[in-house]
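BACKBONE GEOMETRY TOKENS:
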Amino acid sequence: MTSGKQATKVAIVTGAGTGIGRASALALLEDGFSVTLAGRRMEPLEGTLEQAGSAASRAIAVSTDVGDPDSVRDLFAKTMESFGRLDVLFNNAGIGAPPIPMEDLTYEQWKSTVDVNLTGVFLCTQQAFQIMKNQDPMGGRIINNGSISAHVPRPNSAPYTATKHGVTGLTKSTSLDGRKYNIACSQIDIGNAATEMSAIFETGVMQPYGSVAIEPRFDVAHVAETIVYIANLPLDTNVQFMTIMATKMPFIGRG
């Protein structure tokens, strides 16, 4: 391990192959972090590495199923092998179930959403604790990707909404249990960032009152800038909860 690597802050970003995860991983690399890119498929992760240019020398890509304990353990082991410590974990990976009535959802659709969005956050947080509490200097920062749905649901979104409410509870528990180890935990609730997943908002999505409406989006770069800001805070300071959203999206007064 070189002294240069030891001096560089290290981050893991899950879901780093697309959208918010890709933008945040690239922003952290640009800021000087070493970054482990995690995601199910290697091809999108390799696309992130290509976009990183010369900064890719400070990154590794690890194919990871965040809902699988063995896969998560491998992710964190490879990060330690490459970089020797962990300063920031961005729990970003997430999926949604089909937007269909609750009574029509299958058990498999429910479980797959819970496995990624909630169990995955827990498994990654657990591994981060094991590293952060035992490294020197002790401590680190965990940032959880919540959602506007952590506050209010969209129609036909029971699995996703339930998991994001669960993430809020996990964020609070992580903040409390991490105090003795100098581990800070934040949650960033994001509304309508312009990613491939939110492209449908430009053609129209179901509203609580039954009609379909176009919704505004905002540049995902602003989310990435926020992640870098939180990641660089000293560990005696925390952004506990933060909402960043398209100003005119239906949230305040929704429904």
In short: The first helix runs from residue 3 to 7. The first strand starts at residue 10 and ends at 14. The mean pLDDT is 92. The two ends are 55 Å apart (CA to CA).
